[in-house]
Specification:
heterodimer, A: 7-stranded beta/alpha barrel, five-stranded mixed β-sheet, elongated, B: alpha/beta, Rossmann fold, 2 domains, six-stranded parallel β-sheet, 17 helices
C-alpha cells in the first residue's frame, strides 16, 4: 500500500495600512481593515468556501478513504473570526468528518524559530490552543512557517512533543535520495520528517494552468499516470501546497476544481494508492534514514532557502529591531501589545521587503500591497517605531530583571556562545579575589556586599556620586538582591540609563568590572 | 557611417545637461566607429576663448585634450557656427538676454564675423529669427559635406536638421531631450511646440531620453509611435578616489534640493514635505540650492510656515560647490513635476547620497536603488525622507548598491542604442 498525503497551508497576514511617520505616537492601529477584509472575503468566496465544500462532498462520497490535512495559522483564524465566520464553520464541518487532520504551526506564521526559542514556543502553544478550541483535537504534527526546517528547529519541535514535522524535499538536502520515504530528525530521531514531493506538488500548484508546459493540460487520468510511474518501492507521495492554489492562484476557469473532484475516484480506480494524513503515516511508517539539514531550508523560490524573508539590509534591519523588543513585550501585561507584537512578526511583512524580484518572481508580487520593497520597509519601520514608543510607556522607569536569552537557532552563533559562557564562569569564580586584592590593607574588609548594609539615605547620596554606567559595570556579576538594592536608590534618569544598558545587554569586560568596583568601593569607604 | 550632428556646447564650457549629454553621446558613438560631424552654435561673449581651445574655425579635425580619446577624436569633425543660440531659453528670455547684452554694449561685435561660417548680417534679435538663420547655415554645411545621416538635438536645431535633410536627402533623426510641456507645464509656447512637432514629423526617427518623454511625444504631439525610440541617458564615469573631505558644519542631518527653482522642478512640494518632516523631527535641516523664478515665492512660503531656522537657501551653486553640497547631504530629493530624464540624482548617488525622486522623471525608469514618489504626494515624499533619515536598512542598502548602479549607466551603451536607431533608419531607405 502506498500513500498520497495532501497537506494544505492556509494563511493570511494582517496587512499594514499606509502608516506615515507623522502617525507615530498618535495612531496605534496598524492594520488595513478594509484591505484585509476585502482580500479575505474574496478568497473565502473564490477558494476556501467552494474548496471546503468540494472536500466535504468527496469525504462523504468515499468515506474514510479520502483524507487531507491542513494547517491554519493563528492570524488566518483570527481573520475568519472577524471577517468570515462561515469559513470557520466549514472547516469545523470538515474536522467533524474525522478525515481531516489539523496541524500545528506558529501563531502568526512567523520566523521566530530562527531567532528566539522562547517566542517560538509561545507562538506554537498559542496556535495549538486555537486549533483545539475549534477542532477539539490536539495536533501531533507540526509544520513551520513556509516549511522552514533545520536540524535545530526539528529538535525544538521534538522537545515540544510533536511526533512528525513536514518540510520541503529540497534537492540540495536530498541529493540522490527520494522524498517519498519517511525520514527522521538528525538530532532527535524520535521526530519523523515528511518531505514534500515538489515535482508532483508543483504540477498542481504552479504548472496546472501553464499552457507553455508540455504536461498541460493536467487531467486526473494523466496525473494518476504520473503517480503510477513513481518507483513502486517508494512509500508516500507528499503533496504540500498553498490552499489558495484552488480558485485563487489557479482560477476556477482553469478546471482545478474539476480536477480535484475527479482525482480520488481516478486514484481508487487506477492505482494502488491510499490517502493518508501525516499522523497516520507517522503511525504506520518507519524512518529509512536521518535527514541532515544543518542550515534552514524552506519551500520558497528556486533556492529553497530563507532569502525571500531575510538577507537584504532592509529585512535584516527590520527583523533585528523587531526581536530586540521581545523581552519588553514579554514583560507587559497589555494584551493589545501582545497581539500587535504577534501580528508584526508575520513573515509576509519581510517577504514584501524582498529585493529578489528585481530580477524575477511574479509570486512575490501576488497580494503584495506595496509597489517597492522600500515602501514596505519604511511603512513597517514607521509602525514599529510607534510600537516601540508604546512598549516604552509600558515600562516606566523600573528595574526589570533581564530574561535569560534562549539560544538562537543559527548554528554559527551557538558555537560563538561557548567560549563566552566559559568566560562568564571564570569571571564569577575570580571575583572575590580580585576585589580584595587592590587595597590589601585598608580595603580588605570592604567588599561590594557592604552596599547591602547601607541605610536608605546613605545609599541615595552614594548613588548620586556614581554614574549609571559605573554601576552597570560594577554590578555585572552581582546577584539579583545586590542589583535591586542599588537600582532601588538610583535617580530617575540614572535608572533609565542603567536600564538602557541592561536591556541592550551591553557587553562587559572583566577589567571594566574591576575598575568600576574600585570606584564604587572607594566611595563606599567614605560612607561607611 | 558618418553623422552630421547638430549639437550643443562641449566641455569644458557646459551650461547644463544638454551639453553633457551631447558630449557623452558623441564620445560613445566614436567608440562604436561612427564618424561625427559636429556642428555647434557659438554665442558671443566669453565662450569663444574657451571653446576655441577645441578649434578655431570650421571644418578642421580637432585633437581633443584628453589623450585617451585621441584616436576617437580623429573621427570627429567639429564645426562652429557664430550664433547666439543657447539652450534652455524660451523666446521671452532670449529677448531679455539680447536686450541686456545690447545695453551692456558687450564687445561681441569683434568676434561675430571671425568664423568661417559666420554670416553676413547680424544675429537675430529674436529667437525665432535666429533659429531660422541657423537653419540657413546648416543647409550650407549640408551642401558642402559628406554624411549618411543627420542627428539634431533639441528643438532649436530642428529647423537646421530639416533644412539639411531637404538639401541632402539624407535621413533625419531628432533627439528629444525635453518637451515644451516639461519646460512650461500646460501653458506652452505655441511657436516652440510647432517647431518641435514639425521637427519630429519631418524626422525619420525620434529619439526620446525616457519612456516618460516618449509617451508625451506620442500622446501630446501625435507622433507615430513606430518611429519613436527611447534611449536613456547615461553619465560620465568619474575618477574614483577623489573623495571630498568636507567637515560638516552642522550636526543635524541635511536634506537637499538642487536645481533650478522653477515650476518644472517642483520646489514647492519640497518645501511642503520639509514642513511635515520638521513637525516630527527637529534634528534635520533642509537646503534648497539653486536659483530661479520661484525662489522668492519659496522663501516667502518658508517664512509663512515658520520653518526658516531649519530651511536654508544657498543660491546658485556651481562646480566644486555642487560636489561640496552633495558631500554634506544625507538625502537628495528631486521632486520634479516633469523631468524628461534628470541627471542630478545620479550625481548624488555617485557621492553616496540616497535619493528620493519623482515618478514623473525619466531617470526613475532606470534606477532601482532610489525611492520613487509622485511629485504631488507630499505625504509620501515626507515619509520617504523620514525613512531614509531614521531607518538604517535603507541607507545601508542604497550606499552599498547605488554607486555601482550609476556606474553601470554608460554612454557607450546608450550610443550603441542610438547606432541601432541609425541602422533602422538607413535600412528603411
Amino acid at each position: 500500500m502506498r500513500s498520497i498525503c495532501f497537506y494544505f497551508q492556509v494563511h493570511q497576514p494582517f496587512r499594514l495600512k499606509t502608516y506615515r511617520f507623522f502617525d507615530i505616537g498618535t495612531d496605534h492601529y496598524y492594520f488595513d481593515e478594509y484591505r484585509n477584509r476585502y482580500i479575505m472575503r474574496r478568497i473565502a468566496d473564490k477558494c476556501y468556501l467552494p474548496m471546503n465544500n468540494l472536500l466535504l462532498s468527496l469525504i462523504k462520497e468515499y468515506g474514510s478513504a479520502f483524507k487531507v490535512s491542513f494547517s491554519l495559522s493563528g492570524t488566518v483564524m483570527d481573520q475568519f473570526e472577524k471577517y468570515a465566520p462561515d469559513v470557520l464553520d466549514s472547516f469545523v464541518a470538515l474536522a467533524e468528518t474525522g478525515c481531516v487532520e489539523f496541524i500545528a504551526e506558529t501563531y502568526s506564521h512567523s520566523l521566530s524559530a530562527l531567532k528566539s526559542k522562547g517566542e517560538f514556543l509561545r507562538q506554537v502553544e498559542a496556535q495549538k490552543e486555537k486549533v483545539i478550541k475549534y477542532f477539539h483535537k490536539p495536533p501531533t504534527t507540526f509544520r513551520n512557517t513556509e516549511l522552514i526546517y533545520s536540524d535545530g528547529i526539528g529538535e525544538m519541535v521534538a522537545e515540544m512533543g510533536f511526533k512528525t514535522i513536514l518540510t520541503e524535499g529540497a534537492k540540495h538536502i536530498l541529493g540522490w535520495k527520494s522524498p517519498n520515504y519517511m525520514y527522521c530528525n538528525a538530532i532527535n530521531p524520535k521526530l519523523k520528517v515528511l518531505l514534500k514531493n515538489f515535482m508532483l506538488s508543483d504540477d498542481i500548484a504552479f504548472r496546472f494552468s501553464q499552457q507553455s508546459w508540455d504536461g498541460w493540460p493536467v487531467t486526473s487520468e494523466k496525473y494518476v499516470g504520473w503517480l503510477n510511474s513513481v518507483d513502486p518501492a517508494q512509500e508516500t507521495i507528499n503533496l504540500f501546497m498553498d490552499y489558495e492554489t484552488f480558485g485563487e492562484h489557479q482560477w476556477k476557469e482553469t478546471g482545478i476544481f474539476d480536477f480535484m473532484k475527479a482525482l480520488p475516484g481516478q486514484v481508487f480506480a487506477n492505482s494502488k494508492y491510499t490517502f493518508n494524513t501525516p499522523s497516520e503515516l507517522s503511525e504506520k511508517m518507519q524512518p529509512v534514514a536521518e535527514i541532515h539539514v544543518p542550515f534552514p531550508i524552506s519551500w520558497a523560490d528556486e533556492e529553497r532557502d530563507l532569502t525571500a524573508w531575510l538577507g537584504n539590509e532592509l529585512q535584516d534591519d527590520a527583523f533585528k529591531n523587531l526581536y530586540e523588543l521581545e523581552y519588553k513585550v514579554k514583560n507587559t501585561a497589555d494584551e493589545n501589545l501582545q497581539l500587535d507584537w504577534k501580528y508584526l512578526q508575520t513573515s509576509d511583512h519581510f517577504y514584501y521587503m524582498c529585493t529578489k524580484w528585481f530580477s524575477d518572481g511574479d509570486v512575490h508580487k501576488y497580494f503584495n500591497p506595496y509597489n517597492t520593497p522600500y515602501e514596505a520597509y519604511i511603512n513597517y519601520m514607521n509602525v514599529l517605531s510607534d510600537f516601540i514608543i508604546r512598549i516604552k510607556d509600558q515600562h516606566p522607569v523600573n528595574y526589570v530583571e533581564k530574561a535569560v536569552e534562549p539560544q538562537p537557532e543559527v548554528v554559527k552563533e551557538v558555537q560563538d556562545k561557548a567560549p563566552k559562557k566559559a568566560a562568564v564562569k571564570a569571571k564569577t569564580t575570580e571575583k572575590p579575589k580580585d576585589v580584595a586584592k587592590p587595597n590589601a590593607t585598608k580595603m580588605a574588609k570592604i567588599t561590594m556586599n557592604h552596599i547591602l548594609k547601607l541605610n536608605k539615605t546613605t545609599m541615595r547620596s552614594l548613588a548620586k556620586e556614581i554614574n549609571a554606567l559605573t554601576f552597570y559595570y560594577a554590578l555585572a556579576n552581582a546577584d539579583h538582591k545586590m542589583k535591586k538594592a542599588v537600582t532601588l536608590h538610583l535617580g530617575r534618569l540614572q535608572l533609565k540609563e542603567f536600564n538602557s544598558y541592561a536591556w541592550a545587554n551591553l557587553p562587559v569586560q572583566e577589567s571594566d568590572t574591576i575598575e568600576a568596583q574600585k570606584i564604587v568601593l572607594l566611595k563606599l569607604e567614605e560612607y561607611l | 557611417m558618418k553623422v552630421l550632428m547638430f549639437g550643443w556646447e562641449f566641455p569644458p564650457h557646459i551650461t547644463g545637461g544638454l551639453g553633457t549629454a551631447c558630449f557623452g553621446l558623441t564620445k560613445g558613438l566614436l567608440k562604436h566607429g561612427v564618424e561625427v560631424l559636429f556642428v555647434v552654435p557659438k554665442a558671443y561673449g566669453d565662450e569663444s576663448e574657451e571653446a576655441v581651445r577645441l578649434l578655431n574655425a570650421s571644418d578642421v579635425s580637432i585633437d581633443f585634450n584628453s589623450t585617451v580619446y585621441q584616436d576617437y577624436w580623429k573621427q570627429l569633425t567639429y564645426i562652429e557656427i557664430g550664433s547666439n543660440l543657447v539652450p534652455y531659453l524660451g523666446p521671452e528670455e532670449f529677448e531679455k538676454m539680447i536686450a541686456k547684452q545690447e545695453f551692456d554694449k558687450s564687445e561681441s561685435e569683434t568676434t561675430v564675423f571671425s568664423k568661417s561660417y559666420s554670416f553676413s548680417g547680424k544675429y537675430g534679435t529674436n529667437l525665432m529669427e535666429e533659429v531660422t538663420r541657423y537653419a540657413l547655415v546648416a543647409s550650407a554645411i549640408a551642401n558642402s559635406q559628406q554624411f549618411d545621416i543627420i542627428h539634431a538635438h533639441d528643438w532649436l536645431t530642428y529647423p537646421a536638421g530639416i533644412a539639411a535633410k531637404k538639401i541632402s536627402g539624407k535621413p533625419l533623426v531628432v533627439h528629444m531631450h525635453a518637451t515644451e510641456f516639461d519646460r512650461s507645464g500646460d501653458n506652452i509656447n505655441q511657436n516652440v511646440y510647432d517647431i518641435e512637432r514639425k521637427g519630429m514629423e519631418a524626422a525619420d526617427a525620434v529619439i526620446t531620453v525616457s519612456n516618460y518623454t516618449r509617451d508625451i511625444v506620442i500622446n501630446r504631439y501625435g507622433i507615430n509611435p513606430d518611429k519613436v525610440f527611447t534611449v536613456h541617458n547615461a553619465v560620465e564615469p568619474t575618477e574614483s578616489g577623489e573623495a571630498l573631505t568636507i567637515s560638516r558644519n552642522v550636526s543635524e542631518k541635511v536634506v537637499t534640493f538642487l536645481g533650478r527653482i522653477t515650476f518644472q522642478k517642483g520646489p514647492d512640494y519640497f518645501v511642503e514635505a520639509a514642513y511635515k518632516v520638521i513637525q516630527m523631527d527637529k534634528n534635520v535641516r533642509f537646503v534648497m540650492a539653486g536659483s530661479g523664478d520661484m525662489m522668492y515665492k519659496m522663501i516667502r512660503r518658508v517664512a509663512q510656515l515658520h520653518i526658516s531656522p531649519y530651511f536654508h537657501f544657498t543660491g546658485f551653486l556651481q562646480g566644486e560647490d555642487v560636489d561640496k553640497m552633495f558631500a554634506l547631504s544625507d538625502v537628495y530629493v528631486m521632486p520634479s513635476v516633469s523631468e524628461p530624464f534628470g541627471i542630478s540624482p545620479l550625481e548624488a548617488m555617485r557621492s553616496n547620497v540616497p535619493v528620493v525622486i519623482s515618478k514623473q522623471s525619466g531617470v526613475s525608469e532606470v534606477l532601482k536603488y532610489a525611492l520613487k514618489i509622485d511629485f504631488w504626494d507630499i505625504d509620501a515624499m515626507a515619509d520617504a525622507i523620514y525613512g531614509l533619515l531614521h531607518y538604517d536598512g535603507l541607507q545601508d542598502m542604497f550606499r552599498k548598491y547605488g554607486r555601482a548602479e550609476v556606474d553601470s549607466l554608460k554612454w557607450e551603451n546608450a550610443a550603441n542604442h542610438v547606432k541601432e536607431v541609425y541602422n533602422i533608419v538607413l535600412n528603411q531607405k
